[in-house]
Amino acid sequence: MAGKNFVERLQKKQLPFLFVTNNTTKTPKAVQEKLANQFDIHVTSNEIYTATLATADYMLEKKLGKKVYVIGESGLKEGIKDAGFELTAENPDYVVVGLDTKLTYEKIVVATLAIQKGAHFIGTNPDKNIPTERGLLPGAGSLIGMLEIATKQKAVIIGKPEAIIMNKALEKLKLTKDEVIMVGDNYETDIRAGIDNEIDSLLVLTGFTPKSAVNALSVQPTFVINSLDEWVF
């Protein structure tokens, strides 16, 4: 409810905002529908910026070619295809690695050989685990780590807390670092994205990072609140 109220307050005051997510399994449209159906939060798909979109924007900027080998779910593949790239295992210019729940050894082999031959190695997001009811499952970062070991190469990481997604989000908003604040409940991704990129950060103690962990954090968020309802603007 606090999240819904927060977004509605932003909309009422006509303050620009973006949902910046490391999720590559869903398209912005699918994220938009989830926000509406599960949380009654109504935004446009243009107000959602995923690690998939940031990856495509990064590749368009690099201009190394149009052929991409993707390890990932349909949301990642669709987003890259929609940006004008060809998905192929034949001599790709880029290898993009995201979360893939249907990962096979052969996919790892194809990616490893392509990177060894000179394909630009990209990881969509560094999340090592995904919290689920079953426990902490392997995330995209775990798959990227396996390929880094196999190829002896470091991937260019796009998603939070890295600079690429944050800079691209700022470009999309047409705002500077000192005009925005990074809001989130996960210190390792959301808040580090603010801290590491010199953007003010607001940690909300309603999710991933508990109140008990705050004092032990090596670098403190700019602000810490229990609920988004407490934030006055």
TrEMBL record:
Pfam families: Hydrolase_6, Hydrolase_like. Keywords: Hydrolase, Magnesium, Metal-binding. GO terms for molecular function: metal ion binding; phosphatase activity. One of its GO terms (cellular component) is cytoplasm. Its cofactor is Mg(2+). It comes from the Bacteria. InterPro entries: HAD-like_sf, HAD-SF_hydro_IIA, HAD-SF_hydro_IIA_hyp1, HAD_sf. Belongs to the HAD-like hydrolase superfamily. NagD family. This is Hypothetical NagD-like phosphatase. It comes from Vagococcus fluvialis bH819.
